Amino acid sequence: MKTLRAILVDDEPLCRQDLRDALLGFPHVQICGEAASIAEATALINKSMPNLLFLDLSLGKEMGFNLLKGRSFSGAVIAVTAHAEHAATAFDLDVADYLLKPVAEDRLHQALLRAQRKLTNPKDIRSVPKLVAEVAGKNVLISADEIHQIESNGNYILLHLTNGKGILRSTLRAILQKLPKDSFLQASRGRWIS
Fold first, then answer.
1. Which among 29, 44, 75, 95 is most buried, taking Cβ atoms within 10 Å?
2. What is the reported pTM?
3. What is the CATH number assigned to the segment(s) 4-127?
4. Residue 3 DSSP symbol
5. What are residue 132's DSSP bridge partners?
6. Any idea what DSSP says for residue 82?
7. Tell me, what DSSP letter sits at residue 85?
8. Strand 185-188 and strand 138-143: pairing?
9. What dihedral angle (degrees, nearest 10) is formed by the CA atoms of 60, 64, 67, 68?
């Protein structure tokens, strides 16, 4: 597995420490620096040449997105935030994944795999559509390739996933239009299978 040279960008030292501790379980991730602001992060990126950024989206009075806007970063970015509502903007800026604090180890593992895929083949990660659904009481970004079955339930859609189930408010038709054509087969009127 390719070594990931990472920079942690978060204005809260305890959050950086939590992420640093979580990354100890992933020996292929080398932390090459930490920053608390966009200015510090920019200097560190230029100096360390990382291929992965863990980016908090709320850096005091600054928005973490400002680090990505107008700058060419050839590596992968994993957004790490307490704010689920910024997911759409994050993916417009081509982040590899979007993690909610506190970061769960299994989600961190998935995010690192997505970052690896993005670095290995940048076009693949963008071509897989993503949906935000509620899983175990939290809003989570779900990649279309994690969905095994889609089930209509009134005004809601139940997603059967690799690691459990998710729910979102939508119509079946709207969800199917977002997913790759011919990737799901109709099993019954309200159920589609990958």
1. 95
2. 0.65
3. 3.40.50.2300
4. P
5. 141
6. S
7. G
8. unpaired
9. -170
Domain boundaries, the chain: 4-127, 132-193
Please provide the size of the chain in residues.
194
The token pair that represents 47 in the structure block:
């100096």
DSSP label of 103: P
DSSP state of 108: H
Give the C-alpha distances (Å, rounded to integers) separating 49 from 7, 37, 127: 9, 17, 26
Q: Contact at 8 Å (CB) between 154 and 190?
A: no
Query: What pLDDT, on the 0 to 100 scale, is given for residue 94?
Result: 79
CA atoms within 13 A on the CB side of 142: 29
Q: Could you give the 3-state DSSP secondary structure of residue 186?
A: strand
Predicted confidence at residue 127, as pLDDT, reads 56
DSSP notation for 115-184 = HHHHHH-HHHHHHS-EEEEEETTEEEEEEGGGEEEEEEETTEEEEEETTEEEEEE--HHHHHHHSPTTS-
Pairing of strands 138-143, 147-153: unpaired
Token pair 């560190």 in the structure block, residue: 44
Evaluate whether the domain defined by 132-193 bears CATH number 3.40.50.300.
no
Regions of the chain where pLDDT drops below 70: 1, 70-72, 122-128
Residue type, 44: L
Give the pLDDT confidence of 56-93 residue by residue, as tens digits.
988 888 888 888 876 667 889 999 988 888 777 777 77
